[in-house]
């Protein structure tokens, strides 16, 4: 974003949206919005967020649903859309495989397990949810540990899946 252009707007968000629209295609914006859409959402709302017309959004979402990237759900009063979580996970696993070797993923897995173990021991709890229940609202270090644990747990699952894909490739290919 060009800092000089901010003065033209009363709102920095308006400047960011203008830049986003000028730097991306309508299709890219729709994909960006639907990738973050985890709850069934009407096309009109996705169109607003993507700064695109509703007919174009409906066409794009229909195409994305046909290839499995988007789930189309009958909402009673019309279709609702959300990302296909399985495809989202699959794409993240493939990205990990393209960026890291199997050995690097195993090393990362070990580091993540160590992180989780240290936080679990430090707080004497078995899960991030249990940690959240015992933390005071102003315990910044505790909440940082909570966030770190949740992130590490998510990354653990993805690393395990990527390693499993490496194992499957050895058997199948």
From TrEMBL:
One Pfam family here: DUF7342
InterPro entries, alphabetized: DUF7342, WH-like_DNA-bd_sf, WH_DNA-bd_sf
Name of protein: ArsR family transcriptional regulator
Organism of provenance: Haloarcula terrestris
């Amino acid at each position: 974003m060009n800092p000089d252009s901010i003065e033209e707007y009363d709102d920095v968000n308006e400047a960011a949206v203008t830049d986003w629209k000028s730097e991306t295609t309508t299709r890219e914006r729709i994909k960006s919005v639907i990738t973050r859409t985890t709850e069934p959402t009407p096309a009109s709302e996705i169109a607003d967020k993507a700064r695109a017309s509703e007919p174009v959004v409906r066409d794009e979402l229909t195409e994305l649903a046909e290839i499995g990237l988007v789930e189309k759900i009958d909402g009673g009063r019309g279709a609702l859309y959300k990302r296909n979580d399985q495809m989202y996970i699959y794409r993240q696993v493939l990205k990990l495989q393209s960026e890291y070797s199997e050995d690097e993923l195993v090393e990362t897995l070990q580091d993540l397990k160590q992180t989780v173990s240290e936080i679990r021991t430090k707080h004497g709890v078995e899960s991030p949810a249990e940690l959240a229940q015992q933390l005071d609202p102003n315990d910044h270090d505790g909440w940082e540990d909570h966030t770190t644990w949740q992130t590490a747990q998510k990354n653990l699952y993805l690393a395990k899946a990527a390693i499993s894909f490496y194992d499957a490739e050895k058997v199948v290919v």
